[in-house]
Amino acid sequence: MFRLKGISFEQIKEYLPNQDDWEGGFNKKQFLKNRYISIGVQDKDALYSYELRELDQIPWLHFLRLFQITEYLLTNKSIEALFSYGSLGSDKFNKKSDLDIYCLSSLDIKEVFELINAYFPISYIFGSKIVIHCDDFQIECQCIQDIQEAKKYLPESPYVPAEKRVFWAKDLPYTITILERIASETLDIEQTIQGLKTELYYYIQRLSYYTKDPYRLRFHGMIVEHCVICLVAIKNKNYTHNYLPRDTRAYLSEAEWKILNFGINDDPSLYIQNVTNFVDQLIQEMGGLPFFPKL
Q1: Do 236 and 145 belong together in one domain?
Q2: How far is CA 269 from CA 1, 100, 125, 213, 273, in A?
């Protein structure tokens, strides 16, 4: 895929392929390159050098939105780099996938949000990221001011060479070198297990506060469910953290899913008792919590 310096998505969108053509198997990268050259861009350095490994498989709307947000953000000279994390660029990316990108900039998150919100009004700030709702998926833009902050998610993403993750960077060789170094770092499995067990312990303790508030009980129960799946995945040698592993349904039996899922009409006390017993057994199977008593 190519990016053109100085020409916005709005100026060329009428020339971009429609959805039927996009799915018809023609050479998409060559199409874009030819289009850019035909409107007067001859310098090869002005062409977007980044290529998605699976460009032929990336859905049409995902491609348009990715190109669009890249162009809009790069109108601001404070943007240092844009690169992906998550499944984008890997063989795990599909029509149901979200677009996950890092925005490295001296701007703070509110300033980046103002840039994005001018073009994507259905967006909001959630912690350190900006969530944009568009079409049938969402874009999650993590805002960082130091490239080392990419350690939060990059090592946990499907492995993709750094040069295929970077959409644009002021210092491309440096950015690729640092991202490769970060992506190659391995998780401290024991620390990850202890972190998940501690988080489970905390949220299990909180459940009893919400016996008369089904909504909050369900919300905290979903966090417990998330941690359980991650812990069971590690137990099954799938070393993933924060992100849910693929095929999550296969990690638990139907009976176990029923224990973890709180329905709005379920008995809160019975749910808490069952999920506490289940989590306690799992924590003990994973070595217990040396600093906490049993649940």
Answers
A1: no
A2: 54, 38, 35, 12, 6
> Are residues 152 and 25 part of one domain?
yes
d(Cα 264, Cα 46) in Å, to the nearest integer?
56
The two structure tokens encoding residue 139: 């874009």
| CA-to-CA dists, residue 262 to 214, 228, 242, angstroms | 9, 14, 22
pTM: 0.59
Phi, psi of 77 (to 5 degrees): -75, -5
- Do 97 and 224 lie in one domain? The reply is no
Co-location of 13 and 151 in the same domain: yes
Is residue 168 classed as helix, strand or coil in its secondary structure? strand
Tens-digit pLDDT profile for residues 253-272 = 999 999 999 987 899 999 99
Quote the CA–CA distance of 126 and 139 in Å, as a whole number: 12
Domain containing 170: what range?
Answer: 9-183
